Amino acid sequence: MTPITEVEGRRLALSNLEKVLYPATGFTKGEVLHYYATTADHLLPHLRDRPVSFLRYPDGPDGQVFFAKNVPPGTPDWVTTAEVPRMEGPARMVLVQDLASLMWAANLVTEFHTPQWVVQDAGVADRIVFDLDPGAPASVVDCCEVALWLRERLAADRIDAFAKTSGSKGLHLLAAVRPTPSEQVSEYAKQLAVEAERAMPRLALHRMTRSLRPGKVFVDWSQNAARKTTATPYTLRARPEPTVSAPVTWTEVEECGSPAQLTFQAADLAPRLQDYGDLLAPLLDPAGAAPLP
User: Going by C-beta distance under 8 Å and a sequence separation of 6 or more, which residues neighbour residue 271?
Assistant: First the structure.
């Protein structure tokens, strides 16, 4: 029998709570829901007003994994949705605005992916992102070296950058910017990726050509395009273990000597949030947003 629970006055049917989604650790669907419930205060501000693309893995990362951008069938009428412009035509997408909507979405077993803009200003970015993706044998340790270079380069333009793990094998850099058309943000991000490759030709790469990636860090600037999304801070990832896209301190980036030092699972987040709070909170403050040069 599917248990029914009430969240902020909304009735939710939560299914298959004992189902193991991460066989490597025995992490269950119930634990997924508990993780999202206990991190909601920090996760929700990063989701709010941003149309969500769901990467769903209802049978775990080893089962079927698929993206869902349109409003899923059976979505409750109390879940906020919005029409979003897309190249192939407008689409109606979900906005996760509150705890009840978060738990409904988490019950679908999802990663959360969001664009660099809010729905009120579709295609006008308020964030810039760099996805640092290592090609083996490079690792997140090499990403840290590139991230430190990018931090200083952004600082030269009076832009404060913050870091989080991708929850997979890389690192994300984010910064708040004053509302700017996504095309301009993409151009600026590409410029810095090109500069990074020139400054560190043996390590950094701005081109997407896969044959060039082994042993280098691909500085993916393209996720600033209006149509692109990036893993939302604090989302679980569809990996063998319940890893999280976790904000990290610059000291942790500077001192990283092995991938294990920047690998965080769901159970690690509660003590980190207690110690640090939301390390990405400055991204939520419009007063701290910098103009692009």
Answer: none
